[in-house]
Write a structure and sequence with these properties.
Layout (H helix, E strand, L loop, with lengths): L1 H45 L5 H8 L6 H32 L6 H29 L1 H13 L1
Helix pairs in contact: 3-4
């Protein structure tokens, strides 16, 4: 009986949960598009001379700047790196405090190493992106100043 319960939990987590998440996000996006269409149609009914392109531009979310995207990578890199350091430190503390009696510390340390590696990857991505996109970021800032 326990074996069947475990299988149901794994299938629910690995199959049903991702499908549900995708379904809900797509439904929300479709509802948002439907609402946008209704707003545009209502605006056209009230004022036929309205500039639709300008209205659509105002309704769209402003796209994030390259600098903002890079800073988000820096933020996530620092967060995951420090989380990894904390997990490694906590695992080593438990290992020394329990004198190696449990194997959970090794799992904690491995999770910390993985988190630390992801943080380093984010930070590397930030530094490489900052160097490669310096000219594009400068052009974006000049466009914002002119607008």
């Amino acid at each position: 009986m326990n074996n069947i319960t475990g299988i149901v939990i794994v299938l629910g987590t690995a199959v049903v949960l991702p499908i549900t998440i995708v379904f809900l996000s797509l439904r929300r996006k479709m509802q948002s598009e439907k609402n946008r269409k209704e707003i545009i149609l209502a605006a056209l009914e009230k004022n036929a001379d309205i500039d639709i392109e300008e209205l659509v531009k105002k309704m769209n979310k402003p796209e994030k700047l390259l600098k903002e995207k890079l800073l988000k990578k820096l933020q996530w890199g620092m967060l995951t790196m420090f989380l990894g350091i904390g997990l490694i430190g906590f695992g080593l503390y438990l290992d020394f405090a329990n004198k190696g009696l449990y194997s959970d510390e090794l799992e904690l340390i491995c999770g910390g190493v993985a988190s630390f590696a992801v943080g380093i990857a984010f930070l590397a991505n930030y530094h490489i992106g900052r160097k490669m996109l310096a000219k594009e970021m400068e052009a974006e800032e000049q466009n914002l100043r002119q607008a």
